[in-house]
Amino acid sequence: MDTSQITVPSRGPSPVREDATPASGVIHVKVRHAAGFTVIGNHLAQHRGLSLVAIGLAAHIQSLPAGARIGIKHLAERFPESETRIAAALRELEAHDYLDRSRVRLADGRIVTRTISYNQPGATTRPVTTPPRTRTAARKSATPAASSPPATAPGPHPVPAPPTPAPQPCPASTPVPAPAPTPAARTTTPPPPLPQPRELTPEFRHTATALLAGLRRHAPQLTLSEHDIRTLTPGVAAWLEREARPDTIHHALTTDLPTPLKHPAGLLRHRITTLLPPPLPGPQDIAALAGPDAAVAPLQNCDHCDRAFRSHHPGRCRDCQSDLHTAA
Fold first, then answer.
1. Which SS3 state, helix, strand or coil, does residue 113 take?
2. Which distant-in-sequence residues (6+ apart) come within 8 Å of 3 by Cβ?
3. DSSP assigned state of 168
4. pLDDT tier for residue 100 given thresholds of 50, 70 and 90
């Protein structure tokens, strides 16, 4: 009766071992998953070149089953991010080889977007699709083996049949797997580089940034992200360096926009690159193109009437020369 019995511990056990608890930072409490999980590589979860939206979107896409729809509108309905941010995140994943999107024409003539997700960028493994079972093959597999003739009961006096040689087994032919469908081949020609100014001055940078950010006031479909504006700023600065007026650049970028416009940044990059005007010729260039004979002749005084006329050599004016020929 004098011995005390402890039935309740003084405190609950810690989920983390005390000897492994760090002094600061995150503390992980890990439970092994038995089902319903997706393996994500640290190269994606800790990628330094991707935004958090792109990393989360890549993890969501890799967790989806094959055939799930991952269009921009479907993702915008599923998550609170806007279509612009989701489109920018998809372009980030495509630039870092986590996604491959291509336009494919189906047998019925429809054009769809085929998206391939890679959990390891640079992997050479292609998606393998199993060809669908035809109705005839399914019917053959579902038909029981009752098609063979039914066995007849032995007669009262069975006659033994002569022995027949056992058929030699034919070598089984190795089935050749059907080639997996490959994604539609893309054009291998890279797009032309964005024009760059000789010197990106603060004035050019400020004017180009303001021009790109203000496009959405006149064309809402040209709403650009901050990343797109920073990328396209040197191209607009190259126009300004060639003495193009801001209203001229605005007209070239906003005229005859396609409907619907799916990739505004790509369209603007194409127009900035392909519609870049040449530099304006200087006075020396104009003189070189005109040649030495096109220089303005100096003024001369006529030796006969003292009237001024332009000529490279002194002498008489045209009227005095005509009068001289007439008198002769």
1. strand
2. none
3. P
4. confident
Can you tell me the distance from the alpha carbon of 203 to that of 250, in angstroms, rounded to the nearest whole number? 17
pTM: 0.35
Task: Give the type of residue at 231.
Answer: T
Contacts of 245 (CB under 8 A, 6+ apart): none
Q: Does 187 score more than 90 pLDDT?
A: no
* Sign for the pseudo-dihedral over CA of 231, 232, 235, 239: negative
Q: What is the pLDDT of residue 7?
A: 61
Domains of the chain: 38-117 (1.10.10), 202-274 (no CATH), 297-328 (no CATH)
Instruction: Please name the residues in contact with 121: beta carbons below 8 A apart, sequence gap of 6 or more.
Output: 43, 96, 97, 98
Strand pairing partners for 299?
A: 310
The residue that leads in pLDDT, 179 or 69, is 69
Residues 6 or more apart whose CB falls under 8 angstroms from that of 268 comprise 212, 215, 222, 224, 228, 232, 253
- Rounded to a whole number, what is the largest CA-CA distance in the chain? 160
The listed range with the strongest mean pLDDT (71-75, 84-88, 277-281) is 84-88
The Cα 229–Cα 244 span in angstroms is 19
Which amino acid type is present at position 74? H
The residue among 239 and 15 whose pLDDT is bigger is 239
Give the residue from 44, 52, 50 showing the smallest Cα distance to 81: 52
Half-sphere exposure (Cβ direction) of 295: Cα atoms closer than 13 Å? 10
Please, which pLDDT band fits residue 145 given cuts at 50, 70 and 90? very low
Beta bridge partners of 114: 102
Contacts of 112 (CB under 8 A, 6+ apart): 103, 104, 106
Mark residue 325 as left, alpha or beta (left: phi above 0; alpha: psi -120 to 50; beta: remaining).
alpha
Alpha carbon distance 191, 54 (integer Å): 24
Task: Please choose, from the candidates 239, 258, 259, the residue with its C-alpha nearest in 3D space to the C-alpha of residue 247.
Answer: 239
